[in-house]
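Recap from last week: sequence in, structure out.
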Amino acid sequence: MKEIKAAEITKEVKRLCVEAACDLPEDVEKLLREAQEKEESEFGCYSLEKVVENLELARKDMVPMCQDTGILVVYAELGEDVKVADSSLDDAINEGVRQAYVEHPLRKSVVTDPLFDRKNTGDNTPAIIYTEIVPGDKLKIQILPKGAGSENMGALKMLKPADGVEGVKEFIINTVVKAGGNPCPPVIVGVGIGGTMDKATMLSKKALGREVGERHPDVRYKALEEEILAEINKSGVGPQGLGGRVTALEVRIETFPTHIATLPVAVNLNCHAARHKEVIL
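Predicted structure tokens:
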């Protein structure tokens, strides 16, 4: 049995939080630079120029690239041969989030109660933590700071199986076009298809953490990702909603078996600052 001390988990989560806020992953930056080459509209080109300039400055000075440093979504893959010592895994992760957001200039955006007592917790905890038990003796932690501008434009629809591929396509494309400039496009579009209503939304969020260029292993869904992306980019929404060719950078679909009478589809959007970091302990 491999033992990982809670303090080590806390230290790594703290580091990931700071780096995610200030240093956009190179794979996402590459997409944005490619978008600059594709964009034709004057406003679109200007917007992308400022987006790239902003991420360069954030990385250089290690300051947040966006004022909304998000609510932390954490995916933990815990090996069945791993024991977390001195604390629970959730407590160790939340302590890392707390330290990062208290000790660094990261906006605290979490409130205690969603409806009646919307008082700020003061340290951006608790994080949204999903833990999966997997074979092995490793602990993989991936974090996604999720801003409200893009999160608020997500959608879920319980389609009928008879709606089929065309119904799925229409819902996804309409969701992105309706969002307009609110999620700070160009966006990455996460899609969850199948399972139950809660599983579909979880899948759509998880899709946002995939590496750039990682396609669905089923060639039919891979083709669907590419087709939907092309249609979204014909919409004219463009960078920051100011018009242009590049409304979305990628479409990523995750799937799961479902009931014979259901076809759940969820869409989760990520702004151009598609922040994600991970570590394996």
